[in-house]
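hey can u check if this looks right to u? its 142 residues, i copy pasted from the old doc so theres a chance i mangled smth
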Amino acid sequence: MKERQFHKIAPPVWRSKRFLSLPDDGRLLWFYYATSPHQTSAGCCRIPTAYAEADLGWSRDRHEKNRQILMDADMIQFDPDTDELFVSRWFQHAAPANAKHAAGIASFISALDSDAVRERAEGEFVQTLWGERFIIEPSCAG
């Protein structure tokens, strides 16, 4: 499997009151969710709890406590039944750049099993220029 070589994290994260209010472990977990090998260009992915704990070297309690902190701060949408999550406000800094990119993002979102995570990701996706165009006319992706 070829991993992404680049992933955009916008510098304004360091001015975000929501982000800055997190404890250190919450910030680290957010960065893990946003940049892990599991993440997609759609800001949503499936990360089994055991994978995250192994990758971070954390106990289940530490991971679950900090995941809940991120959920309470509206930094992520998470579905424990599917282990799927969406990084909130993803498209404010990583919006689709063109029609082909929008089609790829739409594909990732539509593959989600979690209705709640899919609806949140779709709701933010359609607020982007290319996301809105793709939803109105999927053939715009060529």
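The chain has a mean pLDDT of 90.
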